[in-house]
Amino acid sequence: MTEFSEQAMTLTIRKAKVEDSPKLAELMNIAGEGIPAYLWERMVGPDEDVMTFGARRVARTEGGFSYTNAYVATYDGTIAGMLLGYRLPDSDETGPSDEIPSVVRPLVELEALVPGSWYVNAVATDSTFRGQGVGRKLMEWAEHLANASNAKALSLIVAQDNARARKLYEQLGYQVIAQRPIVSFPRCPHTGNWMLMKKAIGPSA
């Protein structure tokens, strides 16, 4: 198990476990601005709760949203936040599939612009622990993982009007390199564009 501890905050970051899946699904939906739940609603059976279905999806070992790609920040064993990320392939020769839902297509198109980068797919803090630096610590851990993977850059996507998150990423050295219009969906909290941000790392940074 890989861990990172901040003694002053008694904060620990560890690899996620399958039993974390219900909390991961909740935090992934927060980080995903409601898109995960919107997509899960389209797949869930008539007698199953959407978030229960989402937890089952997260509990799988395949796919980008698998718990195997996630890390959790904990205070005394309580999950305070989550990081979901991985290194993208060095090339994307296939391009976005026609089967990709329209709300996701702009995100997939932006992701394809940063092959080989370590992609922060989702980062979120539980509402109880916001304002305590959990998100920043998770982003620092993402950079550690990116360096360990020999990636030359990190990348992420954020909504243009999510000023708080953008401010944090800018403070950490991320810069906007591309944008795509947000495709609205029921309960969509944002308008404007999705913004692809990138941070160079390593000796050449």
Describe this structure as you would to a colleague:
Keywords: Acyltransferase, Ribonucleoprotein, Ribosomal protein, Transferase. The protein has one domain (about 5-200): 3-Layer(aba) Sandwich (Aminopeptidase). The chain has helices at about 20-30, 35-40, 50-60, 105-110, 135-150, 165-170; strands spanning about 5, 10-15, 70-75, 80-85, 120-125, 155-160, 175-180, 195-200. The longest helix has 15 residues, at about 135-150. Strands 1-2-3-4-5-6-8-7 form an eight-stranded mixed sheet, with helices on both faces. A hairpin with a 4-residue loop joins strand 1 and strand 2 (about 10-15). The model is unreliable at about 1-10 (pLDDT under 50). The chain contains six helices and eight strands; from the N terminus they run E-E-H-H-H-E-E-H-E-H-E-H-E-E. With about 200 residues, the chain is α+β, with helices and mostly antiparallel strands.
Tell how many strands the DSSP assignment holds. 8
Q: Kindly provide the name of the CATH class.
A: Alpha Beta
**Strands in their spatial order, largest beta sheet:** 1-2-3-4-5-6-8-7
Please state roughly what percent of the residues sit in beta strands, choosing from under 5%, 5-15%, 15-25%, 25-35%, 35-45% or over 45%: 25-35%
Total number of domains = 1
Helix fraction by DSSP (H/I, runs of at least 4): 25-40%
Terminal-residue CA separation: 29 Å
Mean pLDDT rating: 91
pLDDT < 50 runs, ≥5 residues = 1-8
Q: From the 3D structure, determine the CATH topology.
A: Aminopeptidase
CATH H-tier superfamily:
Gcn5-related N-acetyltransferase (GNAT)
Number of helices: 6
- The whole-angstrom Rg is 16 Å
Q: What is the N-to-C order of secondary-structure elements (H for helix, E for strand)?
A: EEHHHEEHEHEHEE
Shape: globular
User: Which structural class matches the secondary elements?
Assistant: alpha+beta
Major beta sheet summary: 8 strands, mixed
